Amino acid sequence: MSNKTIDECVRANLETYFRDLHGTEPGGMYDMLIRAVEKPLLDVVMEQAQQNQSRAAEWLGLNRNTLRKKLVEHKLLK
Fold it and tell me: Does a structural domain hold residue 1?
């Protein structure tokens, strides 16, 4: 397991992303990053909450309906 914090991991990966672009300007990075982080976040939290959407929504600080909408968007409903 890494001793890096989540923000350190994100920063390192973003630096790699820019390096791999070789000077090409990126587009739509905000949405790309949010979707890349949101799906595994929701998946792991739902697993830890034993698929209990109310509990997961509380942990995430989201309204249950908002969580459900995001689960549908990411095709994570089981």
Answer: no
Domain interval for residue 15:
6-73
Domain assignment present for 78: no
CB distance 39 to 74 below 8 Å: yes
User: How many helices (H) does the chain have, and how many strands (E)?
Assistant: 4, 0
Instruction: Give CA–CA dist 9/63, Å, rounded.
Output: 28
Q: Structure pTM?
A: 0.81
The dihedrals phi and psi of 55, each to the nearest 5 degrees, come to -65, -45
Measuring CA to CA, which residue among 24, 28, 23, 62 is closest to residue 42? 62
Structure tokens at 27: 């587009």
Query: In this predicted model, what pLDDT tens digit does every residue of 10-34 receive, in sequence order?
Result: 999 999 999 999 999 999 999 999 9
Helix (H) or strand (E) holding 50: none
Residue 69 lies in a domain: yes
